[in-house]
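dude i think i finally got it to work??
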Amino acid sequence: MARRDREREQRLSRRKQRVLERARSRKRRRLVIGGSAVVVLAVVVLIGWFAYRSLTLPQGPLSVGNRAPSFTLPSANGGEVSLADFLGRKHILLYFSMADG
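look at this
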């Protein structure tokens, strides 16, 4: 009788150990997946921030007498007009906006 009880207790303790090992491995897996997700999210946010910053901030201070930065805009004829097309010539730029009203 005592032998059967010991064998039964051993089987139960083995089962408990397996259950505990599974629970630990699940916790580790969740921790690894969660940590990886946080790292990936941080990298994506940093890349987005640097991209936004490089696109929105001017490259240098503009003041009277400085050379204008190069840009290209669509023309009324459907083509494109670049500032470099007018280099060396004098031009007047007229700007009208209804929002300035």
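Helices lie at 2-56.
im so relieved honestly
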